[in-house]
Write a structure and sequence with these properties.
There is one protein chain. By secondary structure, the protein is α/β, with parallel strands linked by helices. It has one domain: Rossmann fold, CATH 3.40.50.300. The chain is built from ten helices and ten strands. The chain is globular. The model has no long low-confidence stretch (mean pLDDT 88).
Length: 242
């Protein structure tokens, strides 16, 4: 008889300490939940655990993402200038958290400018190594024609100590690598069969068992699932952001 999945509930502070120890440089994270499930709240919480963070937010910067207190840059400033900015952050004892991309009036008018800034930022972070990139909606990045750049991060970044954190609603509409490459998947309450199937694959557990876990999860509560099928599934709830 198969052993049941062990579930361990942790408050956010305890979980943050645990995840900091287990989320290694070069390991990717996927955040999967329907609209309104609290993806950005969770993302901000885990991004705060990393020193160098670059955010791409095709949907715009909302109040939750602003709580990361990231500096806004309209474009990648160049490797030399970025190195100087990181050094200045270090001298002032602050994390190097940046949002890249221009403020756009309309997507149709400013789309090429936005795409170019995102591509240069992804390429720049990739060259410099040690960054954690966050994409607020991976599906939009793919629609911008930047799927190849995102795939390069997902497949080639481990040796460069780069981590790619992506949030999306429907797994079947995003890159295959976004499901197969991450070391950690965060999932919340859902009946989406694709989410259930992929989560079960990561766990190495029967789909019916995983479906029960996801259906029993309350709103804004997250399952943190690693690649070790014998490890416990962590359950946590990040604090609300103002």
């Amino acid at each position: 008889m198969a052993q049941r999945v062990r579930v361990v509930a942790l408050d956010w502070d305890t979980f943050s300490v645990w995840f900091t120890q287990h989320w290694l440089p070069g390991e990717h994270v996927s955040i999967v939940t329907p609209t309104g499930g609290g993806k950005t709240t969770l993302a901000v919480g885990i991004l705060e655990l990393r020193r160098w963070v670059g955010v791409l937010a095709p949907k715009g910067i909302d109040d939750t993402l602003r709580s990361l207190h990231a500096q806004h840059l309209a474009d990648w400033p160049g490797d030399r200038r970025m190195t100087a900015m990181l050094a200045q952050d270090e001298r002032h004892g602050r994390p190097s958290h940046y949002v890249f991309g221009p403020n756009v009036a309309t997507y149709r008018q400013d789309w090429p400018k936005l795409v170019g800034a995102y591509q240069r930022s992804l390429e720049g972070m990739f060259r410099m190594e040690n960054w954690t990139a966050y994409v607020d909606d991976l599906q939009l990045l793919v629609q911008m024609g930047l799927g190849t750049d995102a795939t390069q991060w997902l497949i080639s970044a481990r040796s460069r100590h780069l981590s790619f954190v992506s949030a999306f609603q429907v797994p079947k509409r995003v890159l295959t690598a976004a499901l197969h490459e991450p070391s950690w998947i965060f999932a919340s309450q859902t009946r989406d069969a694709t989410v259930v199937d992929r989560t079960a694959e990561v766990l190495g557990r029967p789909k019916a068992e995983v479906r029960g876990l996801l259906e029993e999860t309350s709103r804004f509560t997250w399952l943190c699932i690693g690649r070790d099928p014998t490890a416990a599934v962590m359950v946590t709830m990040p604090p609300k952001r103002s």
